[in-house]
Amino acid sequence: MNSIEAIAAALIVVNVALVARRSIWNYPFAIAAVAIYAVVFARARLYSDMLLQGFFLVVNLYGWVNWARIRAAAGDVLVETLTPQTRALWAAGVIVAAAGWGTVMHRYTDASYPWWDAGIAGASIAAQVLQARRRLESWWLWIAVDVASVPLYAAKGLWFTTALYLVLLAISVAGLIDWRRARAVRMVMA
């Protein structure tokens, strides 16, 4: 498992580094990584994370199309933001989804850390969708996911994945800074 986990982790690092740069080439790396991570999480009995990989596959395909369309129209991958009301709705949705999913995992499976895992899964879903839609707020969610994931994966002995999420935390902070800068430059030029 360690070698397959290491390969998936390496693919994710490349993927997220490319996302931070708003490169459309992040998507092939993401698709390969989520396919491998589905196996890793199934073996670790982190079922929420395992199922999340299938969702990520679909959203990465959607994101690839969306980013390609906007890049073709605007010449770049443009960064947008949510309204305060929309942010509140997304936050409420994450909380409700995580509580519901955690309850299902607790009652009906032998999942390890069902609510913690579900919280990470819920926030990851929101972050991935927002990222596919090129929303700046996706980075805040990824930062929260990274911070929450490190101790969970360490508790499960998934050391490559633990290290991965430490690296992803640094890349997510850099991505937030870069996307904020890109958004600010665009607003000044508009």
From TrEMBL:
Keywords: Cell membrane, Membrane, Transmembrane, Transmembrane helix, Transport
Record keyword Transferase present: no
Keyword Cell membrane: yes
GO cellular component: plasma membrane
Topology of this chain in the membrane: Multi-pass membrane protein
Signal sequence coordinates: none
GO molecular function: nicotinamide riboside transmembrane transporter activity
Membrane-spanning segments: 24-44, 50-67, 88-108, 162-179
Pfam family, one: NMN_transporter
Main location class: membrane
Organism domain of life: Bacteria
Subcellular location(s) per record: Cell membrane
UniProt function note: Required for nicotinamide riboside transport across the inner membrane.
PANTHER family: NICOTINAMIDE RIBOSIDE TRANSPORTER PNUC
Family as reported in the entry's similarity comment: Belongs to the nicotinamide ribonucleoside (NR) uptake permease (TC 4.B.1) family.
Protein name (record): Nicotinamide riboside transporter PnuC
Species of provenance: Sphingomonas oligophenolica
